[in-house]
Amino acid sequence: MSKQVISLGTAPTGVGGDTPRSAFTKAQSNFDEIYAALGGSGSPISLPAVLPIANGGTGSSNAFGLGSLTSVPISISDLDSPTLATGMYSLVTASGGTRGLPFGTYNLWVNRFNNTTSAAQIAISVNTGIMYVRHLQTVSFTDTRSLGLSQSWVDVTSSRALGTSYTNTTGRPIQIAGIIGPTSTATTVALASVGSTTVYGNYAGVAGNYISLPQVIVPPGAVYSASAGNGTAALVNWRELI
């Protein structure tokens, strides 16, 4: 209903205005409407400890609105919960990391789209300042740092072989580079595959040459490999920017 306005009458005595009973009846009706809109119930009417999202609340007893602070971190189950409301939170991950987040303490921002898993989340590490994001609560967080930032080239030759598939489990994009040879034929070509895509590198030109693998970027979680095409060659060197 519309707000019921109390008539104050004519100043200074209030002549022609509402009687005390009429005025307080309007006031009580206004309060009853507010309590009902906020999900109040019972007799006497009381507000719920957790105000529903549909009624303008947070939908959670530990959800604090934007700009508010909490010293009590949310749990990992809260992190994935469809009732986690839009707001700012504190989060501590378990030893070994959780959902793609390394072990540590995070400031977490949540933007709830609806009451499913459609909630964008941004987690900023209190320890390192690194920002991680995910667009759904059913996927892992992704490190937002650009390729090359806080990464270095590492010689991984001893743990790599041509024709073998590997998975990027670093949580960040990586890059590979290397040399194979000597080539068995003039048409031997160096190949690198990421998922279902194969990238061609150098052709040998003549048998016995050493040729470079194509330098490809491997997204987080992607499967990658290197090999020789149109002939054979041995792995000489394999480096990764990780």
What can you tell me about this protein's structure?
- By secondary structure, the protein is mainly beta.
- It folds into 3 domains: 1-48, no CATH class; 53-143, no CATH class; 153-241, Jelly Rolls (Sandwich), CATH 2.60.120.
- Helix content is 9%, strand content 29%.
- It contains 2 helices and 14 strands.
- It has helices at 20-37, 76-79; strands spanning 87-92, 105-112, 119-125, 131-134, 142-143, 153-155, 166-167, 174-180, 189-194, 197-203, 211-212, 217-218, 223-229, 235-241.
- Strands 1-2-3-4-5 form a 5-stranded antiparallel beta sheet, with no helix packed on it.
- Strand 4 and strand 5 (142-143) form a beta hairpin.
- The longest helix is centred in the N-terminal third of the chain and has 18 residues, at 20-37.
- The model is unreliable at 63-69 (pLDDT under 50).
What is the element layout, followed by pairings?
Layout (H helix, E strand, L loop, with lengths): L19 H18 L38 H4 L7 E6 L12 E8 L6 E7 L5 E4 L7 E2 L9 E3 L10 E2 L6 E7 L8 E6 L2 E7 L7 E2 L4 E2 L4 E7 L5 E7 L1
Antiparallel strand pairs: 1-2, 2-3, 3-4, 4-5, 6-14, 7-13, 8-11, 8-12, 8-14, 9-10, 9-13
